[in-house]
Amino acid sequence: MSAFHFEGLVWHWPIAIYLFLAGLSAGAVFFAIMLKHFKLASEAYHSPFVQAAAIIAPLAVFGGLGILVIDLTKPLDFWKILVFYNTTSVMSMGVLVLMAYQVALFAWIGCIFHQGLTRLLDGRFGAIGRLSTRFIQMLVRQEAAITGILVILSISLGAYTGFLLSALIGFPLLNNPVLPLLFLISGLSSGAAATLLGGVLLRGNPNGIEVRFIHGIEIPMILVEIGLLFTFFAGLILSGGQSQVAALNALGYGFWGWIFWGGVIGIGLTLPLAFNLWMKVSADRKFTYVAVTASFSLIGVFLLRNFILYTGQMTGV
Amino acid sequence: MCQISRSLSIVLTTLITASIFCTLPTITLAAQTENDTRTCLKCHKRNGQLHGVHASTALAIECQDCHGDKGSHPKKGSSINRFGANSPMSVTQQVAVCLSCHDPQTLANTEWTHNVHATRVSCTLCHQLHPEYDPMLSLDSKQHSQLCVTCHQVKH
Amino acid sequence: METSKRQFLKGCGALIAGISVYTVTKSPLAENANTDASQTEVKYAMVHDENACIGCNACVEACRETNHVPDGVTRVKIERTGPFGNYPNQSYRFNRVSCQHCEAAPCVRVCPTGAAYIDKDTGIVAVNSDRCVGCQYCIAACPYQVRFINPETRTADKCDFCQQTQLSKGLQPACVLACPTQALTFGNLKDPDSALVKLLKTKPTYRAKVDLGTRPKLFHIQTIDGEVML
C-alpha cells in the first residue's frame, strides 16, 4: 500500500492544504486580536506582527478557498455551494462561517488600520473615497462588536476544519470527538507561528513585547496539543475494533509512522517546546531563533493535517 | 555348434529388444505407423487439424495424447476418447486428461471459475483447443458473464 | 417624486433578485419532498440472496448498459471471497456492494448543496446532478463506499434502483431482470404482499454496518457455503 495512493482514498493533499490554511488564518487573526487586546491597544497598527497577521489571514483564507474550488470536479459550479444550503452539512455550515469570517476579517482590518486608510483615501477617489471614509468611521465605532464576532468566527473556523473530517462516520480515526479540538489548537498555534515568522520578516523586533507574549502562550498550547494527541490515539486504541486497527496502522509503521513521530511530534512539538524552555525569560531573542521555532511549528502542523487526512482514510469501519 | 548358438543368441537378443520396444507405450507411437497423428489425418483432414497453442512443435502433442489409442476405431467398440457434452466419459475423466499437463492452481489464478467447475463441467464445454484461437481467451466482461448465464439461467 | 421613483426601482430590483434566488434555490427533483412523508405508500428495498448468486456479473453488465455507466466505474459490484475448501471441491462467497438506500443516509446529511437527497415518494437515495459541484464529501462520508464521480458528468453517481431508466417505465431494475439465478428481489417494503416482504419474512437476512445507524435498505441472505469465519 502506497502512502499517497490506496483503496478508499477520496480526499487528497489539496484538502490537507486547505485545512492547514484555514486553521492558520483563524489562528493568525486570533493572536493579532489577543496582541491588540492585551498588549498593544491603539498602537497595534504599527506593530509588524499585527501587520503580518493582517496580511497572512486574508491571503491564507483566499488561498485555501482557491485550492478547495480547484479541487472540485466542477470548479466553475462552486457558486452553487454559496447559493444552496443544507443545515445538516458540516461543509455547508462551514462555508457560511467562512463567508461571515471574511466579512468580519476585513471589517476588523479596516478598524485596526483606519488611520492609514483614512489618510490614503483623503481627498482622493471623489465620492467613493468619501463614502469609504465614512464607512470606515462607522466600523471603528463598532470595533468592539466586530472584534467579538471575529474571535467567535475564528474559533469556529479553526474547529470547523476538524468537524469537516469528524463528520465522516465511515472512518474511525476521523470520526473522533477530539479531532475538532486538536485541529483548533494546532490551527491556533500555526497562526501564532505564521504571525511570528511574518512579523520578524517585516523587521519586527524578535525580542519585542509581541514575541514574548506569543511565546508565553505557546508553551501551554504545545502541552495541550501533546495532551490532545495522546487522548486522541489513546481513545482510539481503547475503543478496540477498527478504531484500534486504524490508530495502530497510522502510528505503527511505514511512511506515515515516520511523519507522525519525526515530523509532528519531533519537529512540530518537541523542538519548539525545547527551544522555548531553553530560552530563559530574561534572555534576548534573536531573529534566527524566532524564525526557526516558528517554521518548525508550521511544518509540524502542516504534516499533522496530511497525516490525519491520509491515515484517517486508510482504515474504514 | 558354437557358430549356430552365437547367431541364435543374436537373433534372440534382437527379438527381445524389439518386443520391449513394442510394449513401451511411448515408443509404440513412433514404432507403429498405425497410431500417430498422420494416420488420424488421413481421414480427419478437416476436423482433425490442431492449430493454436496446442499445435506448437515444442509440445509435440499427438492426437493419441488426448484421444487415446485408436483401437478398433472407426469400427464398432472403439475406446477412443471423445470430449464434450455427449462424451461417454465422465467429467472427471475428461478433466483428468487436461490436468495431466495443466496445474489446477495456475488455472485458478488465471480465472476463479475453474475452481468451482472442476468436478461439474468438462473443460471442452467452454474451451476449444483445435482452432487457432480459443474463444475463451478473448472474452470481454459482457461475454464472460453471458457465458455463465447460458448454463445458470433458472427457468421462470 | 424623484426619491419615490428611485425607491420604486430599488424595490423592483430587490424583488427580482429575491425571486430569482428563491426559484434557483428550490430543487426541481426534491420538489416531491413536499408531500407528507408519513403518507407514502412506497418504500423500495432489495434483497440479495448470496446462496443463489454465482458471481457472474450479469447484474453489473446490465446496469452499465441500462444506466450508461462509463468504463472504469460501476454502480454495483459483486465482491468475491474465497476459494473455500480444497481443490476440486471449492466454493466462493459473493457479496453485492451497491447503494444501500439508507433511511438515515450519511451522504445526504453531508452534501453541502442538497444534490444528494432522499426521494420521499420512493425512499430512494438519489443524486440531483445539476446541483452537484463535485466536492466528493458524500463519497468520503458513505461507509459503504459505493459512490463515485462519473467521469462523463463529473458529478457524484451511484445506484438509484434504476429510478429514471426502468422504474419510470414500470420495469424492475436492470440488475434484477438480468440475474440468471434470481438472486435479486426488488420490491416495496410497505406492500405486505410483495415478493420482497414475503422473502424478508421467511428467510433470515442481514444488513451491512447497521451499527452506524444508517438503516440501510439493501438486505442480504447470508451464504451457508464455505467455512465459518471469525
UniProtKB/TrEMBL annotation, chain A:
InterPro entries: Electron_transfer_protein (IPR052049), NrfD (IPR017566), NrfD-like (IPR005614). It holds the Pfam family NrfD. The chain crosses the membrane at residues 15-35, 47-70, 90-113, 144-169, 181-202, 222-241, 253-275, 287-308. Keywords: Cell membrane, Membrane, Transmembrane, Transmembrane helix. Its main location: membrane. It is a multi-pass membrane protein. It is found in: Cell membrane. One of its GO terms (cellular component) is plasma membrane. Belongs to the NrfD family. This is Cytochrome c nitrite reductase subunit NrfD.
Automatic annotation (TrEMBL), chain B:
Transmembrane segments: none annotated. This is Cytochrome c-type protein NrfB-like domain-containing protein. It comes from the Bacteria. The lineage of its organism: Bacteria, Pseudomonadati, Pseudomonadota, Gammaproteobacteria, Alteromonadales. Residues 63-151 form the Cytochrome c-type protein NrfB-like domain. Pfam families: Cytochrom_c_NrfB-like. The keyword Heme applies. It comes from Shewanella colwelliana (Alteromonas colwelliana). The keyword Aminoacyl-tRNA synthetase does not apply. InterPro entries: Cytochrom_c_NrfB-like_dom, Multihaem_cyt_sf, Multiheme_Cytochr_ET, NapC/NirT_cytc_sf. Keywords: Electron transport, Heme, Iron, Metal-binding, Signal, Transport. Residues 1-30 form the signal peptide.
Automatic annotation (TrEMBL), chain C:
Residues 44-73, 90-121, 123-152 form the 4Fe-4S ferredoxin-type domain. Pfam families: Fer4 (PF00037), Fer4_11 (PF13247). This is Cytochrome c nitrite reductase Fe-S protein. The keyword Repeat applies. The gene is nfrC. Keywords: 4Fe-4S, Iron, Iron-sulfur, Metal-binding, Repeat. The keyword Repeat applies. InterPro entries: 4Fe4S_Fe-S-bd, 4Fe4S_Fe_S_CS, ET_IronSulfur_Cluster-Binding. It comes from the Bacteria. One of its GO terms (molecular function) is metal ion binding. PROSITE patterns: 4FE4S_FER_1, 4FE4S_FER_2.
